[in-house]
Amino acid sequence: MTKLPNSQPKLLPILIFLSLFSLHHSSATTLSIGVNFGTAANNLLPLSKVAHFVETQTIIDCIKILDANPDIRKAFANTNISVTFTVVNSDVPAIVELPAAKSWVANNILPFHPQTKIDLIAVGHEILATENDTLIDHLLPAMKALKSALDSANVTDIHVSTPHSLGILAKSEPPSSTGKPSHPS
Ligand SMILES: *[C@@H]1O[C@H](CO)[C@@H](O)[C@H](O)[C@H]1NC(C)=O
Ligand SMILES: *[C@@H]1O[C@H](CO)[C@@H](O)[C@H](O)[C@H]1NC(C)=O
Ligand SMILES: *[C@@H]1O[C@H](CO)[C@@H](O)[C@H](O)[C@H]1NC(C)=O
């Protein structure tokens, strides 16, 4: 048995968990590298240290937060890291109503904005892949209500989007799956 070197053991879980989620050109000259950030890993560093580490020691410049934990939502305040907040799937049906969307914004965005550079709200997580008709049917209305709620709070610099897995491109397999309409109208 080889003994594992134990220098910097605590950074390891973070780096493993910070899996790459996107590479996109945010302008002609800058390249953004993003990671998903959550608390499903053990032995996480204190959040402020993670934020500091990400900002100063990596080339990562945007973070997607899958978690509604306010401590995580605050961790990247006053850094130059762009952050994506996520509406958890179970909240999606409720926010189709404008008052509910407004209170979601009031509770989840306004306390953190603009100290945290929130550039995007991701509505749900891979909702089409859940094959849950309630979630799928409410997705677009929820996105529209959220946009209206942001507008009425005068927040104009946050975009609303929804992430999907590549799995949604493979709906024709197996052939029997085509017997059932995937989008009843
Ligand atoms: C953010 O970036 C700007 C411009 O590059 C820089 O002046 C500022 O000090 C940075 N802020 C932090 C908190 O690093
Ligand atoms: C679909 O999602 C909603 C909201 O999370 C949940 O209440 C419901 O039980 C789910 N339906 C199924 C069939 O899983
Ligand atoms: C949004 O901006 C308008 C025009 O500047 C202002 O009348 C309104 O009170 C603002 N609303 C909020 C919620 O800040």
Structure description:
- By secondary structure, this protein is α/β, with parallel strands linked by helices.
- The protein has one domain: TIM Barrel (Alpha-Beta Barrel).
- The chain has helices spanning 11-17, 47-57, 70-75, 98-108, 127-130, 133-152, and strands spanning 20-25, 31-37, 62-65, 82-87, 117-123, 159-161.
- It has a 6-stranded mixed β-sheet, covered by helices on one side.
- The structure holds 2-acetamido-2-deoxy-beta-D-glucopyranose (3 copies).
- One 2-acetamido-2-deoxy-beta-D-glucopyranose binds at residues 78-80.
What's the quick description here?
Residues 166-185 are annotated as: Disordered. InterPro entries: GH, Glyco_hydro_17, Glyco_hydro_17_plant. The protein is 32% helix and 18% strand.
Keywords summarizing the entry:
185 residues, alpha/beta, TIM Barrel, 6 helices, disordered N terminus, disordered C terminus, binds 2-acetamido-2-deoxy-beta-D-glucopyranose, glycosidase, hydrolase, glucan endo-1,3-beta-D-glucosidase
The level-1 CATH class: Alpha Beta
Secondary structure tally: strands: 6
Relevant CATH superfamily: Glycosidases
Tell me the helix content: 25-40%
Low-confidence sequence ranges: 1-31, 177-185
Compute the CA-based radius of gyration. Answer: 19 Å
Give the overall shape, derived from the CA principal axes. Answer: globular
Order of helices and strands: HEEHEHEHEHHE
When the domains are counted, the total is 1
Oligomer: single chain
Assign the structural class, choosing from mainly alpha, mainly beta, alpha/beta, alpha+beta, or little secondary structure.
alpha/beta
Portion in beta strands:
15-25%
Number of helices: 6
Which CATH architecture would you pick? Alpha-Beta Barrel
**Main beta-sheet strand count, sense and barrel state:** 6 strands, mixed
Bound molecules: 2-acetamido-2-deoxy-beta-D-glucopyranose
End-to-end span in angstroms?
A: 61 Å
Q: Determine the mean pLDDT.
A: 74
**What is the CATH topology assignment?**
TIM Barrel
